[in-house]
Write a structure and sequence with these properties.
Helix 2 (about 25-35) crosses helix 6. Helix content is about 30%, strand content about 25%. The longest helix is centred in the C-terminal third of the chain and has 24 residues, at about 180-205. The protein has seven helices and twelve strands. It holds the Pfam family RraA-like.
Length: about 230
């Protein structure tokens, strides 16, 4: 039986055009447009320098905690612009990747990596410029024995990532947009961006209407003392 140790091919993949469109919107805005129900979890923090935006199709990897054999293979088969998303079960006792693998990722044109686990060589990876999110950092290295899976659905902290989904990341964290929902989500994000720009302009001009705050307190029965 191949379950648990297999490499599959992606059957569909978000377009580069949509990946570039997504970079125009903050992850927080897109998260709001998805009912705030899809997130990679607060433990996934950027290892790279701030201000960079990650966007690209997911190449998913599920590996045994502390073992990176399948991540190595994912690096070898990744296409330029891919985001390698690794579910290492959130284990922080052994690093799943370090400087050498980051160099391979950059050489192969990988857009970035998301590791639900630990990494090492953090300062060197930061210097190299790879966009990388991870749940932790440790000097302890990995093993290379397997098993694992590539291009099968993975999930962590409630966020499901299927091969070819659009993975986004900025300084606030990571989220994944399901392939079938990309057009609707990006259209909603565009509308939200316009609305927020209008609100910021009203704040700057002193014309913003903040009466909704007092109204909400009254409707919820907040006691006003003094």
């Amino acid at each position: 039986m191949s379950i648990g140790f297999q490499v599959r091919s992606r059957q569909r993949c978000v377009s580069d055009e949509n990946a570039q469109r997504a970079k125009n919107f903050p992850v927080a805005n897109i998260s709001d447009c998805m009912s705030r129900m899809f997130a990679g979890g607060p433990q996934l923090r950027p290892i790279h320098e701030g201000g960079k935006v990650l966007a690209g199709p997911a190449l998913t990897v599920r590996c045994r905690p502390g073992d990176n054999l399948m991540v190595h293979h994912a690096l070898d088969i990744a296409k330029p612009g891919d985001v390698i998303v690794v579910d290492a079960a959130g284990d922080l006792t052994s690093a799943i990747m370090g400087e050498i693998m980051a160099a391979v990722a950059l050489k192969n044109g990988v857009a970035g990596m998301v590791i639900n686990g630990a990494i090492r060589d953090a300062s060197e990876i930061r210097r190299m410029g790879l966009i990388l999110y991870a749940a932790g950092i440790t000097h302890r290295g990995p093993y290379k024995d397997g098993p694992g899976e590539i291009n099968t659905p993975i999930a962590f902290d409630g966020m499901v990532v299927e091969p070819g989904d659009l993975v986004l990341g900025d300084d606030d964290g990571v989220l994944s947009i399901p392939y079938d929902d990309i057009d609707d989500v990006l259209a909603a994000a565009a509308r939200k961006k316009v609305a927020e720009e209008e609100e910021l302009e009203a704040i700057a001009n002193g014309t913003v209407d903040r009466s909704w705050v007092a109204k909400a307190l009254k409707e919820k029965g907040c006691l006003q003392v003094g």
